[in-house]
Amino acid sequence: MTTNVTDLAALRVGRVREIATARRGLRGPLIPILHAIQEDLGHIDQADVPVIADVLNLSAAEVHGVVTFYRDFRRERGGRTTLRICRAEACQAVGAEALGAHARRRLGVDFGETTSDGAVTLDEVFCLGNCALGPAVQVDGRLHGRVSPARLDALLGEVVP
Ligand code: FES
């Protein structure tokens, strides 16, 4: 039996509703709900917005406004690996900008983009809580400190042969 696109969309709506409903009693539930959806489903799809709005009794415009305001929320499917480079002050002071430029060159994408083969999404982040060990990066959620361009190549080599 095959699963068609409509089935997948319905499954996603069900999962989004489930995630939102489980958290709607939280104080300020929208942000935690969006994080949970992104963690579970990879991104916040435009079709998720009315479902979340319905569960929280908000307007779709309100939910959309929050999704688009925060850089943390991805609105399209990301790559199989996500590389996040810290561009906040402490990391900038020890070479984060050069590291970011190196990553953009090596991957051929800008921040917020995914390589054409779907392998890697490059994201910027403003502090990973690892300021004493900058430049800091995260590869699929795993934190790395004092990352030089050579070390970044090595880390990427593990996920992008
Ligand atoms: S400034 Fe980069 S981890 Fe805090």
TrEMBL record:
Coiled-coil portions: none
Single Gene Ontology MF annotation: 2 iron, 2 sulfur cluster binding
UniProt cofactor(s): [2Fe-2S] cluster
Alphabetical list of InterPro entries matching this protein: NADP_DH_HndA-like, NuoE-like, NuoE_N, Thioredoxin-like_sf
Binding site for [2Fe-2S] cluster: C86, C91, C127, C131
Co-factor remark: Binds 1 [2Fe-2S] cluster.
Keywords assigned by UniProt, alphabetized: 2Fe-2S, Iron, Iron-sulfur, Metal-binding
Pfam families given in the database record: 2Fe-2S_thioredx
Family per record: Belongs to the complex I 24 kDa subunit family.
Name of the protein in its database record: Formate dehydrogenase gamma subunit
